[in-house]
Design a protein that fits this description.
By secondary structure, this protein is an alpha/beta fold. It has a single domain, classed as Aldolase class I (TIM Barrel). The chain has an 8-stranded parallel barrel, surrounded by 8 helices. The longest helix has 20 residues. The radius of gyration is 17 Å and the shape is globular. The termini are close together. Bound molecules: 6-hydroxyuridine-5'-phosphate. Pathway: Pyrimidine metabolism; UMP biosynthesis via de novo pathway; UMP from orotate: step 2/2. One of its GO terms (molecular function) is orotidine-5'-phosphate decarboxylase activity. Keywords: Decarboxylase, Lyase, Pyrimidine biosynthesis. It catalyses: orotidine 5'-phosphate + H(+) = UMP + CO2.
Length: 262
């Protein structure tokens, strides 16, 4: 079971170079925290990334909400990723046919594939979506996650949909390295998926718009997931992002240490 292995042990066996580097980074930095930086200005996003940078393994962006996006934002985020040693995950949630997602991933204003180490997609269109993204991403050493489940109330991503998503990930595991999921699924021979879980908050349980927040320990220790994704719990109104990021880093890492010691 990969849940019982350390990130370092898993990195040694991983076949995807970016997933391998990501697992090494988590161990080196003692962080399984990803900050969901849903900010709408370039200055705000850069300031947050710089403040939380020392505590995170992954910066998760929604680049299309930034009102004054430009190439300089990408350059600055890339420089901050180097300075603080984190990776970037554009949470694009692709959901179209293979040919269209190829264009959305490689081209347009954002050129996501040129800077985002990891991206993700819904399986609604069928496996062509993976094939399209893979054609663009694999030569650039990128990788992706599939949304197998969601954190929001009433999500349709469950049951057979989740199971088929896992099968598709197994079929394309040179490029699909993990899931957005609420729990770890049963491993098969050769599986080592990275499980990332949004909807994590130490102080609140819901936002009135369907989001459901769980405790880091519940996610990492009880459910066996690898990365906690935290947004408003860190940058929300009145919060000190560096202080909160450190708090979540410790909570996530302690839960991981407890898990591998099981
Ligand atoms: P917050 O911690 O502020 O609720 O932010 C959660 C982040 O994770 C958001 O960026 C959201 O888009 C993302 N997310 C989620 O909340 N649930 C999912 O199932 C998948 C997500 O990507």
């Amino acid at each position: 079971m990969s849940a019982q292995k350390s990130y370092l042990e898993r990195s040694k066996l991983h076949s995807n170079p970016t997933a391998k580097a990501f697992l090494e980074l988590m161990e080196r930095k003692k962080s399984n925290l990803s900050v969901a930086a849903d900010l709408t200005t370039k200055a705000g996003l850069i300031e947050l990334a710089d403040k939380v940078g020392p505590y995170i393994c992954l910066l998760k962006t929604h680049i299309d909400v930034v009102e004054d996006f430009d190439q300089d934002l990408v350059d600055q985020l890339t420089a901050l990723a180097k300075k603080h040693d984190f990776m970037i995950f554009e949470d694009r949630k692709f959901a179209d046919i293979g040919n269209t997602v190829k264009l959305q991933y490689s081209s347009g204003v954002y050129k996501i594939a040129s800077w985002s180490h990891i991206t993700n997609a819904h399986m609604v269109p069928g496996e062509g979506i993976i094939q399209g993204l893979r054609e663009v991403g694999l030569p650039l050493n990128r990788c992706m996650l599939l949304l197998a489940e969601m954190s929001s109330a009433g999500t349709l991503a469950k049951g057979d949909y989740t199971e088929t998503t896992v099968q598709m990930a197994r079929k394309y595991k040179d490029f699909v390295v993990g899931f957005i999921a609420m729990k770890r699924y049963a491993d098969q021979e050769g599986d080592d998926f990275i499980y990332m879980t949004p909807g994590v908050g130490l102080d609140q349980t819901s936002d009135g718009l369907g989001q459901q927040w769980k405790q880091p320990r519940e996610v990492v220790y009880d459910q066996g997931c690898d990365v906690i994704i935290v947004g408003r719990g860190i940058y929300g109104k009145g919060r000190d992002p560096a202080f909160e990021a450190k708090r979540y880093q410790e909570a996530g890492w302690n839960a991981y240490l407890e898990r591998i010691a099981k």
